[in-house]
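Input record (Table S2, row 322):
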Amino acid sequence: MTAQEARILELHEAFEPDARQKIAAILAEGSVTQAQICRESGVSSGILSPWLQEKYRGDSQAVEAKLRTWLNARERKTQIASVLPVAPPWIETPTAEKITAVLAYAQMAGDVGCIYGGAGMGKTVTLRAYAENNPNVWVVEMHAAGAAVASALEEIAEAVGLRGLPSRAVRLHREIVKRLRGSEGLLIIDEAQHLRTGAIEAIRALHDATGVGLVLCGNESVYARLTGGSREATFAQLFSRLGKRLHLAKPNRADVLHLAAHYGVTDKAEQALLMEIAAKPGALRGVVKALRLAGMFAAGAGATAIGCEHIRAAWVDLGGAA
Ligand SMILES: Nc1ncnc2c1ncn2[C@@H]1O[C@H](COP(=O)(O)OP(=O)(O)OP(=O)(O)O)[C@@H](O)[C@H]1O
Ligand SMILES: [Mg+2]
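Output record (adenosine-5'-triphosphate complex):
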């Protein structure tokens, strides 16, 4: 390094705002809260506040080191976000149309529907899009921790806009019934494979008491549980109420072409490559992830469009086999 370069660097460092100033500026912008910084950086709130005010009496340098790491990670994320093409909005692909048809039917007829199948078929994005575009549609995403009766009802209560209720199943049931009755609405349970027997029973009871449309959505095991093996009485009861059922095994060719077109990919070779990705587990999720990253690679290489080489590189980079 020449003496002049060293002097420039020195001046640059002198004017480089320190971590404290940077964080104060970020907080002032309002894009992030102190609580979020604490969560993401591992610095506790009892330390961050005094440190920001230069009143922290502990190891200030150690705190600064953690916060610098957080600042660097944040900068990297912002850089990536600025070049990574945004995910497509919901696109009405043929599979999405089929899902929408089941939802519309269940809502209109106050019937029970079941949509089940492999990962990344576009189930969840389509449920959400339907809920955005239609009145009185509630999507509840189940998870292992919410699989028992009271917790499942609590999730539903929250989704239909009831807050602050005690977590007693009887009370929750009563309030949800009041809310749903006469709503001509649709209750959608996504990730329904997590529901335990009692919770399925409780949800069926909501449907029976209100006539609200009900759609259970999730992986292959959702339907298998309604029909399968021992055919427990609870499942058989719900099964007998089942109107439309939709099994989504593999994405449609047209699904892939619709999504690809969103990224300006319309040539046969690239489309064929994306079809291969769509045939793997993860289906359309893999296609969109590969297209986004391929878009970034193409932009980085100064290419005007996404080519096979970008898609291949993206797929490998995402951990897929070449
Ligand atoms: N119709 C669509 N419009 C836009 N993006 C889509 C569409 N279908 C699929 N995708 C893309 O595929 C990804 C996976 O979709 P989604 O999460 O809805 O799958 P899923 O069927 O619910 O899968 P899982 O069973 O794993 O929950 C989405 O994040 C999105 O990037
Ligand atoms: Mg899903």
